[in-house]
From TrEMBL:
One of its GO terms (cellular component) is cytosol. Residues 23-85 form the Metalloprotease TldD/E N-terminal domain. Coiled coil: none annotated. This is TldD/PmbA family protein. It comes from the Bacteria. InterPro entries: Metalloprtase-TldD/E_C (IPR045569), Metalloprtase-TldD/E_cen_dom (IPR045570), Metalloprtase-TldD/E_N (IPR002510), Peptidase_U62_metallo (IPR051463), TldD (IPR025502), TldD/PmbA_N (IPR035068), TldD/PmbA_sf (IPR036059). Gene3D superfamilies: PmbA/TldD superfamily. GO terms for biological process: proteolysis. Belongs to the peptidase U62 family. It comes from Cytobacillus depressus. The keyword Acetylation does not apply. GO terms for molecular function: metallopeptidase activity. SUPFAM superfamilies: Putative modulator of DNA gyrase, PmbA/TldD. Residues 226-458 form the Metalloprotease TldD/E C-terminal domain.
Amino acid sequence: MLSTSVIEDVLTAALETGGDFSEVFVEDRYTSNLLLQGGTIENSLSGRDFGIGIRVFKGLQSVYTYTTDASKEGLLKAARHAAHAISGEKIIQPQPLNKEMITCAHPIAMKPRDIEKFRKADVMRKAYEIAKAYHSSIQQVMVRYMDEEQNVLIANSEGKFIEDKRVRSRLAIQSIASDGNQIQPGFYGPGAHKGFEFFENLNLEHYAGEASRIAVTMLSAEPCPSGKFPIIIDNEFGGVIFHEACGHGLEATAVAKNNSVFANRIGERVAPEIVTYIDDGTLENEWGSLTIDDEGEKTRKNVLIENGILKGYLIDKFNSRRMGMESTGSGRRESYRFAPTSRMTNTFIAEGKSTPEEIIANTEYGIYAKYMGGGSVNPATGDYNFAVMEAYLVKDGKLGTPLKGATLIGNGSETLQLVDMVGNNVAHGQGMCGSLSGSIPANVGQPMIRVSEITVGGSKEAE
């Protein structure tokens, strides 16, 4: 991607005004996006994006710049531009680059760039037909296909020189149901750190059928009661609440500046003993997984909360300086246009001992949130607000009427303390996570859990 000699010269130029660390991030990305609507491919876009990011540290100063000019002259100009924002007395020389060979932890069988577009379109049409045929009330189905290949080279003044290839694929299915008086959506968006083999092995009957089933079910749903109730949150994308309301609060981006309720609390109890919270970038071929992070560090399994005790944070290279703690392989960025910072990969509540049947049977009255929708959170306080895409009333230990209009309102650290049952059916959902370093693929997950009380915003008073 770039010669070793050019990289060495760029790293040296970035330190010529007294910086104590410099880094080069080279990215070459290929993407393919298709949209099918009304049975027809409406959009088909493929592209390539190439660029180089250059970063310089001086103590707790950090400067970042990027360029698409890969000539030696262009790179030296960008490096010196970053260097001029740094002022130091001692000029240091970079360590000799030592290329590190790694084995890809997420094997790819079929590179998407080698696959003809008609095969990609066939996957979309099959999903469309399954979703559309589910029920006569399905009025519209949209299917989005995405694949990407991201090649990166990371080198720094400490002698690191490493390359990596990431390949991801995803299918997003949205169904719209209508009974003439109202419309209801349903959505499913499976994805993985895999090539086209992901689509060949994807259970389209399940995913496309679920998108339409959700939409159709919600047509007959009754208004959700409002008030404070025990809430059962199902597995997979149910983990989005703790991803947003707790996970971001465990990133060094917030912790290093004391902008988190979890700052300076390692060793304290922050959850019941039945809760263990993990971020694991090594899970084979999962959507949020990486062999190395965007700073060249190997990803790892980071146990953040163990049996209710706060054990650690997600830390990137720059914030490790602020905190006096080692990087946890958590430095991530959307692209070369962003400086990396601490981010999640695959974050989930670990499996517990209760079965889903036991959790429901032990709930006298409450709300069962089967699928979560979108929401918002204040990362500094952990206050959140999440819509529920599919919900049910729980009464006398049994699932009852489907409910619409449910919104869960609370505080992440407080909700964490109120988890009183954890199931044994861990599963992951896929999404895109936005933060300071852009939008990145991330898994959220958990088994079914029960929270003893959450405020529910609904459209009618509780009986």
